[in-house]
Input
Amino acid sequence: MVSRSQAKLIRKLKSRKRREQELAFLVEGVRLVEELLSADWDVEFAVTAPVLSETPRGQQLIKAVDEKGWTRAEVSDGELKELADTETPQGILAVAHRPLHRLAEFEPPARAALLVFDRVADPGNLGTLLRAAEALGVAWTVALPGTVDPWNPKAARASAGSLFRLPVSQESWPEVVTWLREREFTIFCADSSGDPVGRIGDPPGRFALVLGNEPSGLSEEVRHEGDWLVAVPLPGGMDSLNVAIAGALLLDRLLAGPAA
Output
């Protein structure tokens, strides 16, 4: 049975302000909790419901949670639905502690890529970009002020576990651009009016790709400091792409080198 204090904390963590105060966030769903287990993060507790034990995968997850030594409360399917962030919960959620990363901690190698979010507003887009960034080899990500909370439950689900492995720091643009300049990073800013980027033969050793707000694009402060405005070539005639798709395509072109 979930305690009153546990239920209260779960409800609090649906608010960004509370997530920041508690330094914790919600992890919901079978796959995401599996990823959380693999990442070996500090977990406050888990909550499970009978629907989880209806499949072998769910039964295995319960066993893994118990073997890990997490505190686990059992509730009815209806009670979990009241606590969960999703419409059709999969029978498990967890409360995990979130780290406080700072870009100053990161010592970049000779070749390193960063992804910077400038007021990206949609949590699904941000989570998808984290997933693409990890897959393509980005070393660090930064959320500038005005960006949706990376620890938003929807962002966490869309990241498919990348949030647990790829560092995300929340910092101001002056701090970020100073850090980038001191370490000789090239700053690419995604913009529909930028230079179309194909796969390049000699990717820059260190670079940051900055992605702007979905409807309004980059802030003037960021645009002013960028070295190069870049865009995805669109030979099919569309005038723009979803920021998650555009960001993934640009990362692929900047990181992958020339096509075979």
Observations:
- Residues 4-97 form a domain with the 60s Ribosomal Protein L30; Chain: A; fold (CATH 3.30.1330.30).
- The first helix runs from residue 4 to 12.
- The mean pLDDT is 93.
